[in-house]
């Protein structure tokens, strides 16, 4: 299919109907962002079952067409969301999943590329930074139109923890997790604030003075959230589904929201040709521009180390 496909801005596709894909589809059905949704899974019965189950909620949520399909059905989707891949097991890091999931992507991404796809490719499978890099390399699509869910969920977890710590609405907390969506992620404390008030000042206003210990404890809680949830219930899916919905909203409504998505970095902080999470302006064209938030020297060092970790993994892939 070499001609350009006219996109349907009200259509979304989800590839992979495991926990994350199904929860994301359920979330998107309720969002009102789309009027058509295609589900694809290696197990067609699974996709059909999820489509039927979710479709039965349409009378409560508003009219929408939801069905199981194949790659021929998704060429005109505004956004293709890829959640397919092996699940992270207890005691397994996201990077441990690399070779299994790169193998799966080698069967999925070329089928999308063959459609001459003109929309946005949103990668959610883990390790998300490496798999977004893989998708860029295998698809040949412009880098701005291939992005990963990145540290959008980690950042939400950070805002949630800070909101709880300070007894304040987490939507008034402005702070980012950057770098790898994984063990080398960095809490960018130096630019964190609560409605413009520097974080430490706000903490003191709320009676908290032991800043270093609190920051360390909160960053560790955020970093280990997924491990904790996986140990308790074997998978995480609601938080990431809400993150997927938020990213889709920014794209479909061209909101130009600043979200810490996975994107290709060229030269920022001395990092080049690797995908990691940085705040970026996200709109109808995907990543419009990355936002170089101010980082301390220590945070910049940690970001560079995070990039080096990812680069070593990427260099070992046969792409």
Structure, explained:
By secondary structure, this protein is of the alpha/beta class. The chain folds into two domains: 141 residues, Rossmann fold; 163 residues, Lactate dehydrogenase/glycoside hydrolase, family 4, C-terminal (L-2-Hydroxyisocaproate Dehydrogenase, Chain A, domain 2, Alpha-Beta Complex). It is 43% helix and 21% strand.
Main-sheet strand order equals: 3-2-1-4-5-6
Mean pLDDT: 95
Summed up, the domain count is 2
Strand content: 15-25%
For the record, the CATH class of the largest domain is Alpha Beta
User: Major beta sheet, specifics?
Assistant: 6 strands, parallel
Quaternary state, please?
single chain
Distance N to C terminus: 23 Å
Radius of gyration: 19 Å
* CATH architecture identity of the largest domain: Alpha-Beta Complex
Number of helices: 10
What percent of residues adopt helix (DSSP H or I)? 40-55%
Gross geometry? globular
Strands, count: 14
SSE order in H/E notation?
A: EHEHHEEHEHEHEEEEEHHHEEEH
Q: Are there runs of 5+ residues with pLDDT below 50, and where? A: none
Question: Which descriptors apply to this entry?
Answer:
319 residues, alpha/beta, Rossmann fold, L-2-Hydroxyisocaproate Dehydrogenase, Chain A, domain 2, six-stranded parallel beta sheet, three-stranded antiparallel beta sheet, 14 strands, globular
SSE blueprint and pairings:
Blueprint: E1 8-15, H1 19-31, E2 36-40, H2 44-55, H3 58-61, E3 65-68, E4 77-82, H4 98-113, E5 120-123, H5 128-139, E6 146-148, H6 152-166, E7 173-174, E8 177-178, E9 186-187, E10 193-194, E11 197-198, H7 199-205, H8 211-233, H9 238-252, E12 257-266, E13 272-283, E14 286-290, H10 297-315
Parallel strand pairs: 1-2, 1-4, 2-3, 4-5, 5-6
Antiparallel strand pairs: 7-10, 8-9, 10-11, 12-13, 13-14
Helix pairs in contact: 1-9, 4-5, 6-8
């Amino acid at each position: 299919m070499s001609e350009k496909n006219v996109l349907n801005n009200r259509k979304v596709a989800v590839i992979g109907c495991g926990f994350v894909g199904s929860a994301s589809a359920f979330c998107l059905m309720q969002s009102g962002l789309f009027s058509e949704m295609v589900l694809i899974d290696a197990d067609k019965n699974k996709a059909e079952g999820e489509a039927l189950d979710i479709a039965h909620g349409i009378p409560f949520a508003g009219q929408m067409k939801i069905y199981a399909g194949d790659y021929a059905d998704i060429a005109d989707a505004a956004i293709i969301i890829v959640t397919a891949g092996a699940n992270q097991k207890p005691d397994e890091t996201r990077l441990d999943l690399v070779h299994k999931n790169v193998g799966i992507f080698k069967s999925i991404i070329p089928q999308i590329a063959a459609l001459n796809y003109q929309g946005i490719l949103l990668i959610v499978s883990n390790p998300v930074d490496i798999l977004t890099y893989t998708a860029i390399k295998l698809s040949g699509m412009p880098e701005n139109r291939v992005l990963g869910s990145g540290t959008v969920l980690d950042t939400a977890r950070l805002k949630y923890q800070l909101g709880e710590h300070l007894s304040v609405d987490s939507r008034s907390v402005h702070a980012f997790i950057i770098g790898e969506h994984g063990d080398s992620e960095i809490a960018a404390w130096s630019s964190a604030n609560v409605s413009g008030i520097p974080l430490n000042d706000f903490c003191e206003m709320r009676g908290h003075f032991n800043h270093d210990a609190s920051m360390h404890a909160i960053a560790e809680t955020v970093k280990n959230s997924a491990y904790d949830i996986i140990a308790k219930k074997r998978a995480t899916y609601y938080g990431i589904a809400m993150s997927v919905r938020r990213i889709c909203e920014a794209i479909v409504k061209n909101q130009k929201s600043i979200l810490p998505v996975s994107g290709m970095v060229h030269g920022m902080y001395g990092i080049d040709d690797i995908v990691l999470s940085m705040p970026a302006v996200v709109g109808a064209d995907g990543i419009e521009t990355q936002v170089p938030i101010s980082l301390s020297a220590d945070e910049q060092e940690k970001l560079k180390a995070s990039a080096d970790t990812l680069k070593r993994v990427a260099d070992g892939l046969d792409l």
